[in-house]
Write a structure and sequence with these properties.
Helix content is 39%, strand content 16%. It has two domains: 50-137, TIM Barrel (Alpha-Beta Barrel); 156-280, Phosphatidylinositol (PI) phosphodiesterase (TIM Barrel, Alpha-Beta Barrel), CATH 3.20.20.190. It has an eight-stranded parallel barrel with strand order 1-2-4-5-6-7-8-9, surrounded by five helices. With 280 residues, the chain is α/β, with parallel strands linked by helices. The chain has twelve helices and nine strands.
């Protein structure tokens, strides 16, 4: 009996510890105001790209088109070998440029030689994109940082401050330690934790870190203002539990049809989409 009680106590303690670790930041006052622009307009994933119109993802025309249509913008930033911030999603150039090289292994001058998806558009620097968006629409910046998350975040904010870009942006990342740097050094900035269900997304090899991230265990370091996860995971137990316990702001990614949007729209406050134009 005593052993059973001890085990029950341990399990209860671990459950409470888990709930504490996954707890998002409580949004009140100014933070609630700061996130409203992102909940009141749809966010175009990697810009309003259209490959049939030779407007590739994360390109200047894609961002310009999103601004013209009045949509918010989501983009990806990562570091080059010479520590330049470029707007590009993948670790390698293979999918978008047809070259099997790492972005982090090339300096920007080398990267600028490659075209995006067979067009005459190049991989833009962050400052080029910010000049297009120009604080006209909400901007979601995803920090891509398989390594050196803190350094990437630091250089990102140095660039934002150098350009005096102060309004209508938030930062998200799959990497909690990139968000931890923001929490410690720019606590006023809205930050979001990206989550992926690796099993549902068809990934066969799941590393321990992926399991930990998917379980939100490292949120204790980032304490995000919102959680961004694939819309198909909306009914997973942990997310339903979080919504009941914490009533946090959630972002759904990435909706790719009107049917998907209609089915899951009410489960999210922030909507990230691509490959179609929402009717609403």
């Amino acid at each position: 009996m005593m052993v059973a009680l001890i085990m029950i106590g341990i399990m209860a303690g671990l459950s409470l510890l888990y709930l504490w670790c996954m707890k998002p930041c409580k949004m009140t006052g100014e933070r609630e105001k700061a996130i409203k622009p992102f909940t009141s307009t749809y966010i175009a994933h990697r810009g309003l790209f259209d490959n049939q119109l030779s407007i590739p993802e994360n390109s200047l025309p894609a961002f310009r088109r999103a601004v013209e249509k009045g949509y918010g913008v989501e983009l990806d930033v990562r570091l080059t070998k010479d520590l330049q911030l470029v707007v590009f999603h993948d670790k390698t150039l293979k999918r978008m440029c047809g070259v099997d090289k790492m972005v982090s292994g090339l300096d920007y001058q080398e990267l600028s030689q490659f075209d995006l998806n067979g067009t005459n558009h190049h991989i833009p620097k962050l400052e080029e994109v910010l000049a297009v968006i120009d604080e006209k629409v909400p901007l979601v910046i995803e920090v891509k940082a398989e390594k050196n998350g803190g350094l990437t975040s630091q250089l990102l904010f140095e660039k934002l401050e150098q350009l005096n870009y102060k309004k209508l942006y938030c930062v998200e990342s799959f990497y909690p330690f990139a968000l931890k740097w923001i929490r410690q050094n720019r606590p006023e900035v809205i930050r979001g934790q990206l989550i992926s269900d690796y099993v549902k997304n068809g990934q066969k090899k799941i590393r321990l870190l992926g399991i930990i991230l998917n379980g939100l265990l490292l949120d204790v370091f980032s304490r995000p203002d919102f959680i961004a996860y694939h819309y198909k995971c909306a009914d997973d137990l942990k997310y339903r539990l979080m919504r009941k316990l914490y009533r946090f702001t959630s972002a759904g990614w990435t909706f790719r049809s009107e049917e998907e949007l209609k089915k899951y729209r009410d489960k999210f406050q922030i909507i990230i989409f691509d490959s179609f134009i929402p009717k609403e």
